[in-house]
Every structure is written in C-alpha cells, then in structure tokens.
Protein 1
Amino acid sequence: MSAPVLDVANLRVTFPTHHGDVDVVRGVSFTVGRERLGIVGESGSGKSLTGRSILRLVPPPGRVSADKLSFMGQDLLKLSETEMPNIRGKRISMVLQDPKFSLNPVMKVGHQIEESYRRHVANNRRQARESAIEALKAVKIRDPETVYHLYPHQLSGGMGQRVMIAMMLIPEPQLLIADEPTSALDMTVQLQVLAILDDLVRERGMSLILISHDLGMVSAFCDRVLIMYAGKVIETVKASDLDKAQHPYARGLMASVPRLGDDRAELPVLQRDAGWAK
C-alpha cells in the first residue's frame, strides 16, 4: 500500500481566552490517499479550521499543534513561514466557499489567475496568459477569452466558483481542499461544479478534501467521510455507507435531512449528549 498523501495525527487548534486556552479542534487524526475525502458536521464543529490548519492559515492568536502533520513525507509544522509558500497554493491548494470575498474586486479575473501561475510556476507573462486561458477551459467556461477580461462582480456565482477552482488548480497541486465550494450555488450549478472537480481529480490524480454541510452531496461524491462534532472526529465511514453510520450524532444528522416525498410533520431535533464533546 502506498504512503498517504496527507497524514494527520492528534491535530489541535487552540485559542486563548480570559478563562484559559480552548481547543476548538481536538485531537483530530486521519489520512488522505489518492481519494476524495469528505468532512461533514454542523457549523462550529471545526471542519473549516481543520482544513485551514493543514495550510497553517489559522490566524494569531490561534495555535496549531499535532503529533504529526505530514504532507508527502514532509513535516508541515517544521517549515518556516518563508518555506510554506512552496507548499501553500503550489502543492496544496484551497478553494474557499464564496468567490465574492475571495477574488480581488478591482482586478480582472484573468490577471488573478495569471498571478497564481507566475507566483508558483514561472514568471513569464505570455505563458501565464496562455495557462490562464487553458485553466478557464478546463473548468468548462465556454468563452474563456471573454471571461478572462471580466471583473469578479460581472460573474455569476457559478462562474465565480469556476474561476476560483481554475486559479487554485493552475499550479497542479497534489492536494485540493475545497471548503463548501458549492454552498452559494443552485442545485444545477452545484452538480456542474462537482462534475468539474471530479473530472480534474481523476485526470490529474489529485487528492481532494471536500468540506460540506450537504450530506447527500458528500455521500454521492466522496469515497470516505469524516463526521465531526465539537472539534472531534466521532466517526469515519465509507461515503456510500453514510446512512448506516452508527454514532447517535451521525444518525441524528442523517435523520434531519429533508427528503422528497417526506410525510413527517416536523424534522426531528438532534438530541445531544454532553459526553460526545468529552
């Protein structure tokens, strides 16, 4: 069996408070191979912080610690801030959930994609432009030459998300972290964006971490799923078996999903147990 692309053991994200340090990600452990790994849980469960901590993007005064945080055999916690840019964006990329807040509003999107190429691949303007156009084609944008010259406010939500994916993929990373990449999109556009991600992951042999609230989407799209609650991973299951998860919290999440033809008068309320958070 080949070594994992990412190996995480006892990951913690800690913030100081007036009452002492508080761990908001608490002892999370998992590995990622050449696969699509989903991370699910309610808001505040630590999903996004787990993703950001891999790239050491947790802002001060937050602290990231782990027994192991290894990417392709390299210890990410031992890299200096001057060394991290060789990993961040180049070998591990992250797609954030809302392009309105992630794209520079006063730069044409083509120039922003070029910037990623020139920073991580080669500082050649002509090659950067050609690669930006090819990246827009790769995410199924029909008229890449026109979109290249648009500003972010001129893009629809789905097109903006495709531009973000193109920008993150242009250095051809080995691992892509997608944090709620379809949350602001309607169902039809969600499926299109997921199909693009699926094609790119398969064609390029990348690993994918998909962070989402959408249990149905994750179960259909991913290979494995981590279920998080209160900063901890409480269960790991095959994505196809998500509806068979055993932990009471996981069963409660699945029961709260509305379904077509559902004749329940009310969706069930998740009953929490204080012991889950210990």
Note: The chain has two domains: 6-91+174-277, 100-172.
Protein 2
Amino acid sequence: MTSDLPLKDRIALVVGASRGIGYESALALAKAGAHVIATARTQGALEELDDAIYAATGQHATLIPFDLVDGGAIDRMGGALYERFGKLDIWVNAAATMGAEGLTPVSNADPRGFAKVEKTNFTAVYRMIRSLEPLLKASSAARVIHLTTSVATVPRAFWGAYAATKAGAEALMKCWADEIESMPIRVAILDPGRMRTQLRAQAYPGENPEQNIHPSAIGPLVVELARPDLTPPLTVSFKEWNAGPQASALV
C-alpha cells in the first residue's frame, strides 16, 4: 500500500454502481488503486463507468449487469467471484430504490411495487451477506460500506416502503456486524445526507438539485472507510465527517 494508492491490489465490489453515489464510489476506489467489480441493472451505464475508470487509471473494471431482485443471480455472483478472485476486500452497497410510485401513502402502495422495493432494499442485502461473507472472510482486512438514509431512523409520512426497507437493511447490517466481530471484516453504515442523486430528485421533484452536494464529494470518505490500515466506526455521517477534519472518525 502506498500513500497515493492506499487501496492498491484490493478487490472492491460496488453494488448499484451505474449512477450517483455508487458510480462515484466506484470511480474513487479505482483511483485509489482497487480493482472494481461494478454491478447494476443497465449494461450501458456500467460501460460508461468502465470508460471513466479506464480514462482515470488505465485499468478496466469487471462489469456484472443484473437485477438485485434475482436472488439466484446474487448467489451465482458469489461463486463466480470466488473462482476468479478467491476473496473480496471491499463491498460497497449503494443500491436502493423507491419504486416507480415514489412517495405514496402506505395504504395506497401497489403490492407489486412494494415487493420490488422490499426485494431490492432489504432481501437483497441478506442474499448478498450470505453470498459474500466467505469471500470477505478470505481477506486480511475486509471492509463493508452500506449506504443508509435518515428516514431509516426517523420515518416520515409517505416514505413507508423506502423507510421501512432501509431501516430493516440497516438493522440487518448491525446484527451481522455483531456476529462477525471476531472475523477480519468491519462494517460501516454510511448516511450520505442530501446529495444530488436521481433518488433525491424522485423524492423532491421541485427542488433545485444544484443546492445539494454532488455525489463525487463522498468519494474520499468511501476510500478512507475502505482502507485496510484504518478501522471504520459502525455508523458514519458524511455531513459530520465533511464538517470536521477529514478521517477524524477513523482510527
């Protein structure tokens, strides 16, 4: 590991890498020396990310297009990554959806839409933990960065499906973090706050996006949380980290 490439030779999986925070996290990890495995539903968007990574580093990413609602695909991904890499050093879970309906009263939610939100935001997290834990255990210092949201802890009207599933995923991550305390795996649950993402625009269509922070700003924090020589806290707020000395929450 060198100061300019703190993640040199690390293998990093970024789930939800086609845009927003996932895209910027993948790019930042690649610039820090990691080999990025990028997943998302859209092949074309992943190829655009790969072009950006190659332009910045001269190295290509590994691209895995699939939908998180496909639990079998998550299981197969774990096996394929084991065959190719034998381990996983970093897992960034940035995938999330509000569903096509967006904000809606709980009683009005479409059952099929609700089920898709649940599978993407919650069940897929369980399936990925199950699939990826053996790979993470093979790393000398694995780091898991799970993106959460403020409505997971402070639910609000009309956020029902999104808030409930994100809260469930956060609780699941905390339970798992406690279970693997003796393993070389550390979990960081990261709240990015208000950022200029498509998800934010869906929730607040009348908001001026320019007033929110560009998701590229979170890249340095993701790299710090992924470093094998630093121990991340279980919960991290980008807002608090950004307001103080960088990496002040890390030891």
Note: The chain has eight helices and seven strands.
Protein 3
Amino acid sequence: MLDNIDERLGARVRIERELRGWSLTELAKRSSVSRAMIHKVERGEASPTAMLLARLAGAFEMSMSTLMVRAEMQEGMLLRKGEQPVWIDPVTGYARRHVSPRSATPIDVINIDFPPGKESSFPAASYINRKHIIWVLDGELVFLEGEARHEMKEGDCLELGPPNDCTFCNESDRPCRYAVIVLRDS
C-alpha cells in the first residue's frame, strides 16, 4: 500500500489517465501541465500544487475534490478525525482536510485552513459539472469568481455560479477556516 498522499495522488492521476487511454503527452496537452511534471507526479516524486491538481482534474472533467477523494478515501459511513486525509499545498501552505466519509451520498465536505496573506487560484474547469458552496467558519475570505468579488466573514455562505476562473484570498492578518461543500456525481 502507498504510504503518503503524494504517492496516492500520483497513482490516482495515472489510473485516471490510463482509464481514458491517454498518453502522458495527451494529458499534458489537455491540462497545460508539462509531461515531465505529470511523470513526476505519477511517480510520487513531486508534491503537486493546488493549481496543478486543479488543471489535471479539469482535464479529466472532474473537480479537484473528486480527484483527491478518489486518491484518499475508503468506503464507509464513519470517518473519524484522525483518519481524515489532510493535504497541504506546498505553495500557499493551506491545509485541506477531507471531512466527509466516502459513501453513496454524493456530497464531499472539505475543511480548509488558509494562512493569512495567501491566495490560491483555480481554472474554470475545476468547477465543471459540480455545485460548490463555500461557508466561512472563522476569519475572513475574499473569493473572486470571474469578475465578481465576494468579501466573506465568519458565518457567510456562498453558492458558486456557472464555472469561472476563481481565486481564494486571505487578505487579513489572521488565518481563515472555511468549508467547501461539493455536490458530486454519485
């Protein structure tokens, strides 16, 4: 069994690519990620950034959350906190904890701890065929959805519109914690 999240993510990327019968070159073309980087990710030799994972997931026509769930989760009705997979973006330092169990329920709940002064962008392809809700649990979050700017505070909840390039920003001087709820294909 693979022993770390980078290896599990790499294995999942390879599986998704092979399920589609794509070469490294084909995935590189569809995702705008270099063949060399995809090769390193698939072998667990590189820690992928959130942007890179979003691009690969978009090429597979799934959300980054779905790609990560497929890499991280076992089936079951209960997912204890100590078993919840945590991934840390090597660029921004944000910590992503998958809270919901992988079950027949087509909902993923993800907790994000976002450091102050950081931002993370995702292409519109990350949001295709999915409904997303962002709920700020603590702190402040600025969410840029295409041309729209949403300034959110603790307790605010936003449903995303049609797929758009999006950026999460923590413009404050303290951490922000928010949940992303994703309605996925079952």
Note: The first helix runs from residue 5 to 19.
Protein 4
Amino acid sequence: MKVLTYVQGSTENQVKSGSLEEQKNQIKKFCKFKGHEFLEILCDAGLSSLSDRPAWKRAMELARENKIEAIVVTKLDRWGRSTKNLVTSIDGLRRLGGQFISIGDNLDTSTPNGRLLFHILSAFAEFEREIRRL
C-alpha cells in the first residue's frame, strides 16, 4: 500500500523536544513492519489543529490526485481535534478510495470496527482540546 505520513506538533515545546522525530520514527517502523510503500513525510511543526496547516492540505491534495492509498499518523489527534473536521476529512479520504491509519489508536478506517472507533476517538480529541482551552 502506498502511504503518506503526517506528523504534527502544535507547541514549540513539542517541536524542540523531539516529538516530531519520534512520530516520524514510529511511522517508519510501522510502515516497514506492514510492508507499506512509504512515499513521503509531511510535517506541520508548531501549528495547532486550528491553524492553517500547509502539510495537512498537501496530504489531502495528494489523496485527491490518487497518488496515495492511505495516510498514516501516530495518533488521531495529530490529524485534528475537531470532530466535524475529522469526520469530513476522513470521509473525503474514504470517498477517494484512501484509508486512514492511526498507529497509537490501533485505528484503520478500512474496517467497520475502525470506522466506529474513529468516531468515538474524534469526539474525545475534541473534548480534550476544549478542556485545555478552559
């Protein structure tokens, strides 16, 4: 499977702490283990999920161009924290024939169980964002 990987760190601390490199390494190991063809790493460093994220937009553009079969992230909340945006983007990806895989959440939207888990986890991601804003 041809996969694109996306990493994100919303705070300067996450960027400086090596969190992005950890995400990249975890994804590379996962792709190698699964035998996926690892195409590219896209990274939005220091940008929150509420920001205009160029790498996120590029990932969706590549999906629309049918250049990838899946997007792989370490955790769902790296892709987004708004339930509406998560559902819209993942549904759009699926309609294009792409899948979404979140390693840490054991989430693969190619299965009914994975799609159910996706909806549950997206609600928790948004809830966590809202709690942090208080």
Note: The chain is about 55% helix and 20% strand.
